[in-house]
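Recall that a protein's primary structure is simply its ordered list of amino acids. Everything else, from secondary elements to tertiary packing, is in principle encoded there. The following example makes that idea concrete.
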Amino acid sequence: QSQIVESGGGLVQPGGSLRLSCTASGFTLDLYPIGWFRQAPGKEREGVSCITSSGSRTDYADSVKGRFTISRDYAKHTVYLQMNSLRPEDTAVYYCATYYNCPGSDFGSWGQGTQVTVSS
């Protein structure tokens, strides 16, 4: 059964950092553009970042530019989202997904999500 799994979320103080990881079972992420989107209570879903299958291009939402970095490790078949200078407004459930294109907003499969809470 194909499945995407996110990990690395947690509680962090404003200004802190977290690194989210995205892996898959039943298929390899290496073949796909991969992106992260987030969903906060009462807010619309927001695309955060994506990376092409080759890793040659990345894209970021304006709200996270300069603070978040997406990358992929082909040896580990893993995609990371390094989040620095976190703010309370970054609090959300973060989902990893296979995207059709990067840049883009249409995605296929996604995982169960990982909770990120930024609070003092």
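The mean pLDDT is 96. The chain has no helices and eleven strands.
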